[in-house]
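pinned: reference chain
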Amino acid sequence: MHILPLGGAGTVTGSRFLVDAGRTRVLVDCGLFQGLKNLRLRNWRPFPMDPADLDAVVLTHAHLDHSGYLPVLVREGFRGPVHVTPPTEGLLPILLADAGRLQEEDASFARRKGFSRHDPPRPLFTARDAWRAVEQVEPIPFGDSFQIGSLSLEFHRAGHILGAGSVRVVHRSRGSVLFSGDLGRPNDLLLPAPAARPEADRIVMESTYGDREHEEVDSLSHLAGVVNRVAARGGVILIPTFALGRAQTLAVALWRLRQEGRIPHLPMFLDSPMAVEVSGVHQEHVTELRVPGPELAAALEAVQPVVSVEDSKAIHGMNGPRIILAGAGMLTGGRILHHLVHFGDEPRHALLLAGFQAEGTRGRALVRGDRTLRIHGTDVPIRLEVERIEAFSGHAGRSELLAWLRTGPPAAVSLVHGEPGPADTLRRTIGTELGWEAEVAEEGQPLGEAFLKTFQ
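pinned: its structure tokens
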């Protein structure tokens, strides 16, 4: 059995890992490259093998950097099953169809404005491609073993977002590999901690925060401090929000603060049609969450859903402090950009970044200290307060990754889904603190030679 990274190596996006067991070939994750242009261009490269030769695809979770290439793979000939957890089955149609619509809109905009290398400009995939891919999805409950040719697989809860799982793959009696997927935090407000990891000969593990810890702060108190400070000066709090997971977590956090009297009773808006739809899936799978069903329902009701463009624009005409949750979480697109254009030039307002900001995104530019952003073809000055709360990140920090590793017996580790610096720092830490073999995976290069010999 050979494990070949086809993405997600040297970067935090584009996760794709080919498991080749001779007559059985499985792709674990099928993600889009995001962020920097040179990464996004990789999405247009031909897949390195005939998709029809894959027996199955297994997705760790629904985020597009793990699932978003699936419509292309299906359009190009993949006809096998796509195995996911039951919550992921509910989330995928929403995320993939929305991504397809955005691809079509971007192509249409490029056609009107006359900028594209393609004539006419074309989307990477369409909403129709997305729906075709969804038809091949087959849900598998956590902990249930399922067979793909000579491989036996199972999902284990990983935290991070609703439905996220680590995937254990066993090749008959000759060894095993565990794909961590993205790992959540042990004290996440919305989700239970990742499950103790099962035994495996090699672990293919994410390294997003491999070189740093999350701040040891009370996330609710930090959030309350920002809200109260900005509200006192009559400002608006903008929170770029991922529709999946972060929007629901922040809704619960704001609801609790309001109920406890720690923030004023401000108007709150969830300006993201996709987040509103995703919230419904959370309510359908509330048993997978740490938050009781009635509290989740009350929290989601407290943030007024905004669906139409007209209602979104109407928020600008209101008076007084308010809180606006809007996509996208790294300022890569979505309605948050329209709000930032409107409010960004006034220091009394604030932008709260609540999570990881990938290289090449506007969110990362602000973290870096930039105070001018290119939005819709115009340079927009950013004079509002920019605040960051890492405590709401959905990714485990360095010590949390190590703690998860320690929940199982020693294994060789291949680090993926991280930028080069964090991944290499974590590699050294695993070697010095745990004494385990560790490597940083490279795209197109099979995982460690010692591992390969185990399975030959």
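why pinned: The first helix runs from residue 37 to 40. The first strand starts at residue 2 and ends at 7.
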